[in-house]
Amino acid sequence: MTNSIPEFDETDCFLITGSNTTEAHPLVATHVLRAQRRGAKVIVVDPRRTQIARLADLYLRQRPGTDVAWLNGLMHVIIQEGMYDAEFVESRTEGFEELKAAVAEYTPERVEAITGIPAADLVTAARIYAQAGRAAILYTMGITQHTTGVDNVLSCANLAMLTGHIGRPGTGVNPLRGQNNVQGACDMGALPNVYPGYQPVTSEAVQAKFQEAWGYAPPLRAGLTVTEMTDAAYHGAVKALYIMAENPMVSDPDLNHVRAALERCDFLVVQDIFPTETAEFADVVLPGVSFAEKEGTFTNTERRIQRVRQAIPPLGDARPDWQIICGLAQRMVGMQPTREGRFAGWEYCSPAEIMAEAAALTPSYGGVTYERLEQGSLQWPVPTPDHPGTPYLHKDRFTRGLGRFTAVAYKEPAELPDEEYPFLLTTGRMMFHYHTGSMTRRSEKLEREVPEGYVEISPEDAGRLGLGKSARVRVISRRGTIETRAWITRRVPPGTVFIPFHFAEAAANLLTNPALDPIAKIPEYKVAAVRLERVA
User: Fold this and answer.
1) Contact 87, 519 (CB under 8 A)
2) Closest Cα partner for 390 from 304, 307, 308?
3) Burial class (CB in 10 A: 0-12, 13-18, 19+), 18
4) pLDDT band for position 332 (50/70/90)?
5) What's the pTM?
6) In the chain, what's the furthest Cα-to-Cα distance?
7) What is the pLDDT of residues 247-272, one digit of tens each?
């Protein structure tokens, strides 16, 4: 997030897209709704009429996969009506003329034809957002899990810069992270193309720094993403996988392909706190610990680094993740020639020592120590020991200097409905379960609330298919088939169905399309073509 959650109390307009905020991020939603009661306007753009959409001042229902078109349409209206921040554009950005030319063809009428959003509503949304004193964009995986996910995010950045709604409190472009420490994992280099602190692995200078510190550094090339590793295992290019706190046998697209890949893998290690569907394929299972059994830090969605303090000793044979990793590394280093380096021995005594190494090698964490965190949380960047942290980014300048507009054209999703598969499937989360259900479905109370999966289908489509309340239905795509319960609801429009992905016995990801965004390599979970059949 460019900004901080408490700032939302002062925000005048929220543009929320691809986010089921009240169900998936309820604490953030409380700030949004509190600001709305104060007078802030809430605009929601989403294919489903979720709870936050019902509470919105203006709800725009777009066809899934058409986000670039409506975002360009907003910018078209803002430029045509002279509502953009000319001073900000002139002094803080570059590439405006290219953007202006690119969005010129996205008139409200053309956007309506592409997206289904009424032209008048698009114009109203553009005016509310552009004319607000402080406007914030909130989004989640509803706009990133597409073959055009990067284009969608670039378009959000374009919109924020065009209106000057960035670099100030209560504004910005704010992705709400899907798990409690996914930001921290990314910060620490759990991505195939960067070292900790988003330092590129392709940089010779960066490589030299880590070479000196560790006595070793990987080659100057990016590694494989999650779905690329699975595909490589399927084709035999990857022989072993070490899967930690991930359950790809429920969460990855095209699960029949994932199953075949794991079965072909020569050696599979799974490290987790509970047995999962993926662990059933493992040669070795390493028991990790929960948050309550370890020391460390979590970095949340607003870049806030927070101490985690151990409440109980690890249960059974479980160990903190850092101890498992260090133990494995020490054995593997012992098999190799000695490597000279400040941190090459893997002989840490505590997470505090690991944080000290991270601070020494990661500029954005340079001033972070456990001593400081004992006094309270810090928001990176924290470059020096006396730096107070950064509540919001890009105050006076962007990281690269001038913010660059990127002209983006609308592209259709990789797979669209046709005569054989006439429905458009989208997937996501729901209130009572979390991710693949490996934790929440072990809770009797949560399981009692929603004990099985379902497919949301409009009353019009249910009538055409002869489906009654809670009827069983078969959902079929080019990749797989599931049977589940029909939930007849106006949350979804005719022609679109929705399935939550928490339920392994009716796994939405047996159906989803593994087509990837060419840059981020994110699968297109949010758009797939399916057909429905009534189960007798």
Assistant:
1) no
2) 304
3) buried
4) confident
5) 0.93
6) 71
7) 999 999 999 999 999 999 999 999 99
